[in-house]
Amino acid sequence: MSAQRAFNGVKGMNDLLPADAGLWQALERHVAGWLDNYGYRPMRTPVLEATGLFRRGIGEVTDIVEKEMFSFTDRLNGDELTLRPEFTAGIVRASVEHSLLYDGPKRVFSIGPVFRHERPQRGRYRQFHQIDVEALGYPGPDVDAELILMGRRLWRDLGLADVRLEINTLGESAERLAHRAALIEYFERHADSLDEDARRRLHSNPLRILDTKNPAMRALVEDAPRLADHLGPASRAHFDGLCGMLDDAGVAYRVNPRMVRGLDYYNLTVFEWITDSLGSQGTICGGGRYDGLIELFGGKPAPAIGFAIGIERLIELARAAGKLEAANGCDVYVVHAGAAASRCALRVAEALRECGLEVVQDCVSTSFKAQMKRADASGAELAVILGDDEVATASATLKPLRRDAPQERLPQDQLPARVIALLTGDKVTVADESN
Ligand code: ATP
Ligand code: MG
Fold this sequence. Notes:
Blueprint: H1 18-37, E1 41-42, E2 48-50, H2 51-58, H3 63-68, E3 71-73, E4 80-83, H4 88-97, E5 106-115, E6 127-136, H5 142-157, E7 164-169, H6 173-189, H7 196-201, H8 206-209, H9 218-222, H10 233-248, E8 254-255, E9 267-274, E10 283-289, H11 293-296, E11 304-310, H12 311-321, E12 332-336, H13 339-354, E13 359-361, H14 368-377, E14 382-386, H15 388-392, E15 395-400, E16 408-411, H16 415-434
Helix pairs in contact: 5-10
Magnesium ion binds near residues 63 and 262.
């Protein structure tokens, strides 16, 4: 009888087992190259920050701050702490704290876990992962366009066909206030046609009335004042500049005047990359400009813009597209029989690794047949076999596992060179075939 399981993982927080982690690793490798191509540099901040940082930075009246943060009091010193629900606030805090922008703007990125107390479902977890990209100190709109082009390139690289772009401008806060006043005035004039929800939101959050699901209010909402009509010339020029650059680059987009994004700190450009192939959690990337945040955190005023990609959603799409491949098996699997051979195997395996080869040694040590089975399952190209005979003559048997070729016996000190010749020979053959 087996013992009862003592613990389970925390709800909404997934284990990533080796079968899936390989694909994640392949994605992360690709993403590292992609970020390099655009000159973005890595930056890492703690998973825990002061709760006040997020309340202030994200905004009190947001889904995240109102109901999604994992917050707690440190019982050892009374500090109020929160597991980061997103990266931007921490990155901006760190760049102010360390005067990162003292010698000019910076392009940075972070990749890692973020935490939100949401109802777990497909594409929505309590611990999930983001690729977060921030351009700190750049006024745009050229950098806004660059960030969007980065997205397009990544979807293309990964073979994601069905991802579309929506953009909008939120203007500046004075313009949003003027729009808000106009909305209230408009809806008050049509108070008779408002449903109960809308009446409740009229004075607290009139913008929310715009995304009503009530068909009876659709016409009313369609004719409501638009933020676009309250934009000043600078905001207008920023948005037109961005649209012009996207047109030049042949990026298809839709202007969605209803897109407001969840966070308080955004201004001017906001954008989302959306797909229909993920069910209802279709946003894989969201971003926007936050020109006031650095100053809000006590830094010298500087504009900034960034975006975050949800890795779980991206992986699901990339897996379906089938272009991303997890790394294959190792190069060599070392099989050995007997105590002397086992010591010899350690030495032989190290000599192969010394030459840069990926080597797995059998450390279960059962029958020769069982070891060969594991060698085959490992995905290795070659098996190195060491028995009493081989030990006695300082030799090794080399057995190709993936194709019909004879095994060969050779001196141990010639093994690395022979393995490399066989493996690179493989690559040449593959290249020739594709011609
Ligand atoms: P949503 O509208 O889906 O709640 P959001 O606006 O809250 O998204 P952002 O804060 O913009 O999301 O986060 C950026 C990206 O992180 C999203 O586009 C999405 O891909 C991913 N994401 C957000 N919340 C979750 C979650 N709970 N689980 C998995 N991925 C998530
Ligand atoms: Mg959300």
